[in-house]
Request: fold
Amino acid sequence: MVELKLLQRVLGPVMTNCYILIDKDNKEAVIIDPADRADVLDKLLKEEGAELKAMLLTHAHFDHVSAVPELRKMYPDAEVIIGEGDRELLGNAMQNLSAVMGDSPVTFAPDRTVSDGETMEVLGHTVKCIEVPGHTKGGMCYYFEDLKVIFDGDTLFRGSVGRSDFPTGDEEALLRSISEKLFSLPDDTVVFPGHNEQTTIATEKKYNFYF
Reply:
């Protein structure tokens, strides 16, 4: 099994968790939700001697994608991936909230979209894409089954859930996505959310206020 190193930084105006995964052997890296401060992320990669190969976006909101345009200039071969359902949101500065809450409007097109149940190879690991409508129409979780970890964006938090009052949000769909898709994962799965502390599926099934 390819051994990965996980780096986490809290970046941007709403303190978004940005995750960098690095293959310890060949120094290839992916970033999950490049929230802000491309300079900080680039410095971390260079300190590790790592080359960015892909950016996985859990959803299109500005506080999870704002560093993408600048990182694309630095790493033109890095593939930008998002759920198919959020493609339109990514290209709309009002709906992705960058025009109303961010420092400046942010829009761009992904290199690739993924769909619910699709699998892809990431740094030598098979990653299952789990679509979780609710926070946004096309929110996507990235589940590393062999590592027992999931990166779930703003869907499930420690003791809480994501907001559903932004464009394309749907509270009923959000709760259904969590209860039917995330809570069906093994209890010892570690959840790395878009904000605040990590948790586990077992903890949230037992203690989460919304369930």
